[in-house]
Each structure stands twice: as C-alpha cells, then as structure tokens.
Design goal:
Elements: E1 3-7, E2 14-20, H1 30-41, H2 49-52, E3 58-61, E4 63-64, E5 67-68, E6 73-78, H3 85-91, H4 110-117, H5 123-129, H6 134-150, E7 154-162, E8 165-166, H7 175-180, H8 188-203, E9 210-217, H9 233-242, E10 247-252, E11 270-273, E12 276-279, E13 287-288, E14 291-292, E15 297-303, E16 314-317, E17 322-325, H10 336-359, H11 364-380
This protein binds ligand EPS.
C-alpha cells in the first residue's frame, strides 16, 4: 500500500513528510526536487514570506547514496522564518506563547477550527491550515514525479485564469514558455494582463483567485477501477485536488461543460488508423468508467481568492464578543501560480497509488517488468486468437 503523511506548522521549526511504498532502487535527483520546491515559491503575487524561505529537502530515512531503499522515506523542509527570535518565542514546541488571535477571517479555517478543537487562540488553527504545508506536498510529489517518469508518465500544468483574466485554451503548449512567465501562463500577452490584475488587486487591498489546468501524458490504459466507487480514477484525482487549500472546483475533460452537450458532442468516437485504435477528441479528459483510457488526463481546477485581505473583511472579535474587522496578517495577494505546481504534486501523489496497485513491485526493476508485460499483453489482445488469449 502506498501512502503519505505530512506534519508541520507554518511558523514552526519544520515541515515533515513520510512517503511509504515507493519501490527500492529509484535513483533520486535531489537537485530536481529542490528546483520544484523553488518554483512553488515563485509566482507573481507572493508576499514577503517567500523572500525569507529557501525551501530545500533533507532526507532522514529511506534513501541511501541517492537511491531509495524501499523503506519509508522521511523528508524535512525547514522553516527559515522560525530562526527569528520573535517567531521562535511564538512557536517553540515547548515554550511558545503569545497574544491570542481573536478575529476569524471569513473563508479561512480560523472559525470552524477554533470551535472544532476548542482553541481560544486562532493561531493554533491557522498554523496548520496555512498553505505553507504545501511545500512538503510538493516535495513528496517531486519524488513521485521521478517514480512516474521512470514509467514514462509525465505531468505538467499552466495557469488558465487569474481573476477576470482568462487565458486562451491550449491543448499543447511549450513548458519553457510557462517557466518563463511569472504567472505560469504560456502566452506573454495574457501573462502581462494577469500581472496587471494582481497589481490592481494589491493596490485595492484585495486578493485574486483563478484556475489552472493539469495534464498527464503517458498514463497507461486501465489505471483506477470501475469495481468500487472509491477506486475510480476520476474520484481519486478530484479528491486529491479538492484536498488542496483554496480549491473549490475540479473538472475532468469537458467538466461542467458536458452538462449542456447532446451525447453526439459529449464523447470521443473510436476509429482505426492502420492497426491502432484512435480517438479524434479527448472530451472525457482521459478517464472513462473510472479508468484511464490511454489519452492524456486533463483536469481543470478553480481556486478561490485567499481569505487574508489587507483591507480586512467584516468579522467579529470572539473574545470581546463584538463586531470587528478580520485579523490582518502578512500574506500573499494571489497564489494561483504556486497552486498550479501544488496541483501537479497532488495529481502525482494521487496517481502513484493506483499505478502501484496495478503494477506492484518492491523494486523498480520489478515494477518496470510488470508494466512491460501488462502493456505488451494489452497491445496484443486482439491480435491473438481466443485460445492464446487466456
Ligand atoms: C499563508 C500566509 C503567508 C504565506 C504562506 C501561506 O505566510 P506568512 O503568514 O508567514 O506570511 O507566505 O505561504 C507560505 C509560507 C508558503 O510557503 O507557501 C497562509 O496564511 O496560508
């Protein structure tokens, strides 16, 4: 069974992650993991905290000489902010204390979490709810990226929307154009308009949401299952993305747009091209019957504007029991570019489990052998006569 866990408060000493179930003998490129962590820290619209942090992975277990051992992988990303005396006094695990935060931010975990855990200081909720935690998800997802890439499965994304600025749709795009854009959109004109929108929101004391598209190439047919609801690949992918802070909607393929289409315009017709079965479209987004169908997986994700506004929203002071503006803390204006990278990580983490369920393997060699046998069998299925086929 493949599984992962993260722990860590936004201003505590570190973020910690455990990844259990990655086969032995995966050669890890640690530089690539750190480069992915650095990309998540970028993006136009990030706040002052990102000038303090320089996220880097440190392995504590499961890796020797740069290669996975098959044992649980334990990883740490330290919070540099914790090095300051002020933050340490607030957050030291044994002695930390400070003035309580009392005014919940509408849209944040503050209010529900305070009542749920019986915390009178909202800091005890917001520390874990903070999207700082996504640095560890990206770290673990970057390990999964290397596992999946060894199997020929790659994942990428671009930002599709920031506030009211909507990008043209790209079926194909050049990833270097995405990397060159501060808002991770491949079109320079769209990027400029998105940046201007973020500047305007910042000047108004406001925040902006938006959306991103994630695409997976190379996923073999038959990942996920129609056997039970919780095994369906669409549910697994959507659930993972909905588990990311700020995400409010996930669409696969045509998504919500399918509701208005007649059946004749909603599906992907089959045809033969020489001996190969081909499809002229990918309206299903690569998933049919809860299983991958061999086409790219295409997922669109919508995220809300973050709830920490410098021009505070109306709220209450839960201690004084009066109306009062929401707590204002240092924060970002727009996190959509970073969220796109975390979305990629969530998709990789989500796919690793059903991929391992199908191919298994305690070592990379075994997983790759199983994959090869399975794809060979699928390719030859209708070439053989029935007797050979059993
Ligand atoms: C966040 C608030 C900001 C962000 C943080 C998420 O942190 P701080 O309160 O320290 O300024 O920078 O994001 C990160 C630290 C990160 O690594 O993404 C929040 O309240 O969610």
């Amino acid at each position: 069974m493949f599984r992962y866990l993260t722990a860590g408060e936004s201003h505590g000493p570190a973020l910690v992650g455990i990844l259990d179930g990655i086969p032995a003998h995966l050669n890890l490129d640690v530089g690539a993991i750190d480069a992915t962590l650095a990309r998540r820290q970028g993006g136009y619209g990030r706040g002052a905290r990102m000038k303090i942090e320089r996220d880097e992975v440190e392995f504590l277990a499961g890796v020797r000489g740069g290669t996975t051992l098959g044992s649980p992988i334990a990883a740490v990303v330290r919070n540099r902010d914790y090095a300051t005396a002020k933050v340490r006094a607030l957050m030291d695990p044994l002695t930390g204390s400070g003035e309580p935060l009392t005014n919940p931010r509408p849209g944040h975990a503050d209010f529900a979490g305070a009542l749920k855990y019986r915390h009178r200081d909202l800091r005890n909720v917001l520390e874990r709810a903070s999207a700082r935690e996504t640095a560890m998800r990206v770290c673990l997802g970057a390990i999964c990226a290397q596992f999946l890439e060894a199997l020929g499965i790659s994942t990428r994304s671009y930002v599709q929307r920031i506030g009211s600025i909507v990008s043209p749709e790209f079926d194909e795009w050049n990833q270097t154009d995405v990397e060159a854009s501060d808002v991770r959109n491949p079109d320079p004109g769209t990027s400029e308009r998105m940046i201007a929108a973020i500047d305007a929101a910042k000047a108004a004391g406001d925040t902006l949401g938006g959306g991103f598209l994630v695409r997976v190439d190379g996923l073999p047919v038959g990942i996920g299952s129609n056997r039970q609801p919780n095994l369906r690949l669409d549910g697994i992918v959507a659930g993972a993305l909905m588990g990311l802070q700020t995400v409010k909607a996930v669409e696969i393929g045509l998504g919500a747009g399918v509701a208005g289409k007649p059946g004749s315009q909603a599906h992907d017709a089959f045809a033969y091209d020489d001996a190969a079965v081909v499809r002229g479209s990918n309206r299903a987004g690569g998933i049919e019957g809860g299983m991958s169908n061999g086409q790219p997986i295409v997922v669109r994700v919508s995220v809300k504007p973050i709830p920490t506004l410098s021009k505070a929203l109306p709220s209450v002071n839960l201690h004084a029991r009066t109306d009062a503006p929401a707590t204002v803390v240092r924060s970002d204006v727009c996190v959509v570019p970073a969220a796109a990278l975390v979305g990629e990580a969530m998709v990789r983490l989500a796919l690793t489990a059903p991929v391992l369920e199908k191919y298994g393997g305690d070592s990379m060699q075994e997983t790759l052998d199983n994959l090869r046998r399975s794809t060979d069998a699928a390719a030859g299925l209708f070439e053989q006569n029935e007797a050979e086929n059993v």
